[in-house]
Design brief:
alpha+beta
């Protein structure tokens, strides 16, 4: 998908990006602007929004999407 206008993006008119990392991601405006300007140059489809989640938040989101209990026992 590194090619601008890749075949898999045909018919897509907006993109939402979710970034998942192992810790807290600082959402400081200068860094957000730098990341956004860097990424937008690689997509011909406009990026609608960016979401930053740590791994625990991502796991909770997946549980919600799957309709599972959030209090998992391991």
């Amino acid at each position: 998908m590194i090619t601008i206008g890749h075949e898999s993006l045909k018919g897509i008119d907006e993109i939402y990006l979710m970034i998942v990392n192992q810790g807290h991601f600082p959402t400081l405006k200068p860094y957000e602007d730098m990341i956004e300007s860097s990424l937008t140059s690689h997509f011909s489809v406009p990026i609608t929004d960016y979401y930053h989640l740590d791994i625990e938040e991502f796991e909770m989101l997946l549980c919600l999407l799957n309709g599972r209990d959030l209090y998992l026992t391991y």
